[in-house]
Amino acid sequence: GNTFLFVNAWKVIVRGHKWREHSFTAKLDPDAVFFPERLRWHVSAHQGEKVFVINCYRSDGDTTYGALEVFSLSAIQEWAVRAEECSTPGDYGEDKYMTQC
Fold this sequence. Notes:
alpha+beta
């Protein structure tokens, strides 16, 4: 998994404060195609909520992870305060880490 790399990257992002200027922050894989206006349409009703968007969901309750993750401002604020409480197993990917955290 890439959990340690992911957590370290988010610590750098949180220290930079740029994310505070936006209601949502999107993390994409480098090969993803992204249309910000479509994301705005989908998430606009969730401003102010603690939201981590799971973009691929299986009916058996497990998650199939995709190339896009979306975090609300409130969700990042919560993670910034409580990240040290979250377990970071080396065999987790970032998607599973965030759903568990």
